[in-house]
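Lab notebook, bench 4. The sequencing result for the construct came back, and we need a structural model before the next group meeting so we can plan mutations. Quick request posted to the team channel:

Model the 3D structure of this chain.
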Amino acid sequence: MDLHTHSKFSDGTDLPEVLVEAGIDVCLTSIAITDHVRADSDWVWHYIDYMEEVREYYGDRIRVLSGVEAKVVDFNGTLDMPEGVEDFVDIVLSAVHRVPKEDGGFLTDDEIASDGERALNLWARAVVGAIKNPSVAVIAHPGLIMKNHGIEITEEVAEKVAKAAGGEAVAFEYNVGWGVPKGCLLNGLMRHGVSFTVGSDAHSADELREVWGDGGAGGNIPDEIINRLVIL
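Done. Here's the predicted structure in token form:
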């Protein structure tokens, strides 16, 4: 499965059906197109209709899911997406693309660099908020923003996130493109019995083939993740 890809409807380079064809080429059984949305993304309604046609066309050749990826904007798990979209797509991915601040807005790169501990704790609060949002099916590329800023997720913070996720319906993505989650966050999620999906975050058919083709990162999924995969 690959439940995290992007098409030309947002910032990808190919139409959804081109990504689906690539998924068939590399023998995926399921693929989700999960384009980035914001609250003002009025194109999403056309996208939903378009994806229904794609699903019908490919029938039983591959399982096609429609989805969106939306960023968390606060500690209550509020998502930056059009109201009601969750009722018309198969999967909603939630991602911390920017770290919310205590009084609104988001941390700048300089603020993250100057106080990594603060950034890490605010990141954890945002993830916990997303976990509690019933519209969210999957936490996408968990820990990526911390990794990109060179901030190690501590045992304490990992335990806070994993404990919040334990027993909840939300799954965490094992992202083969970015190699997250890892370390104590991955261990904590495993310890608390959290389920996983697998995604590449591919933004093109070529990238999807690279990830899932011979020698690609998709061939290195740990057995313990495979044993905890959930089919949405």
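The domain at 2-226 is CATH 3.20.20.140 (TIM Barrel).
Will bring this to the meeting.
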